[in-house]
Structure formats: C-alpha cells, structure tokens
C-alpha cells in the first residue's frame, strides 16, 4: 500500500475532509500506538504545514511527550500547566490566538505564536492530548477545532 496522501480541496475544511479517510486507511489494522500517532502527526503537519504537531500521553500524574513532528519539545507537563495541562484538566479543547497572552504558557519554542490543544477522551478520562502549534498569530479556528476533535475521537476508538 502506498503511504502517499492525496489531499483535495482549497479550504481547510475541504483538506480535513479529504485527510480523515486517508488517515483511517493509512492506520488500517495497525495496532502499535506509537506508529499510528507518528503517522497522524506527520500527516497533519504535511497537509497543513503546521509549525509543530504532536501528542502528549497521560502517564501517572503528568503528560509525557509522544510522537510528534517539528522542533524539539517539552518532555513532561503537569496537570493544569500550560495549554496542554489546562486542556487535560478541563477535558476540553483550548484554542489560543496568541500564546504570549495565555497565563502559564509553556514556551517550548519562542517561534510558536498560536496553539490548539485537543484532549483525547476514553471512558470520560483524558488519556492524551493532541497539541498543534503555529508560527502565525490567530492561525486556528472553529474548523480546526471541529476536525481535530473528530480525529481525536477516532484515535480514542483504537487507543
């Protein structure tokens, strides 16, 4: 099977709509979570040219860095700390237009300007988060929120 993605559409919504079935085909019956998260990160980064895309997985009482695409990143994040820890604590997606205005933002890279973090829920517990950063201010919107939440819901089905 070819691992090439063929993204159709001009708008973000069209690209997300084109991407999701291809992600499902790419993952297929693969059971290894690291492999799956790595491919999802790569697909999102290459499709949208995001600055950083990756996952943090809940391990005991902290989020621990999992597969990602982009610059080196923070390794561990406490519950309630930064955007990722806040998303975990609140069990909700957090969209940040300007990370410099987010209280307690953790700056893994000074080049990051906006961010969206989506919790991955299983049995009403957060098992991980998807973290996407942009080097542009106000780069995320409701379209990203809806589609990234759909991807995270799908991830929880095989996590």
Write a structural description.
By secondary structure, this protein is α+β, with helices and mostly antiparallel strands. Helices cover 36% and strands 26% of the residues. It is built from 4 helices and 6 strands. Helix 1 (12-27) runs antiparallel to helix 2 and helix 1 runs parallel beside helix 4 (142-158). The longest helix has 17 residues, at 142-158. It is globular and about 40 Å long.
Kindly state the percentage of residues in helix.
25-40%
CATH architecture: 2-Layer Sandwich
β-sheet strand percentage: 25-35%
Distance between the termini: 23 Å
Topology:
Elements (H helix, E strand, L loop, with lengths): L11 H16 L5 H16 L3 E8 L2 E8 L6 E3 L3 H9 L3 E3 L17 E9 L2 E10 L7 H17 L1
Antiparallel strand pairs: 1-2, 1-6, 2-3, 4-5, 5-6
Features:
about 160 residues, alpha+beta, Beta-Lactamase, 6-stranded antiparallel β-sheet, 4 helices, 6 strands, globular
Provide a concise account of the structure shown:
This protein is α+β, with helices and mostly antiparallel strands. It has helices at residues 12-27, 33-48, 82-90, 142-158, and strands at residues 52-59, 62-69, 76-78, 94-96, 114-122, 125-134.
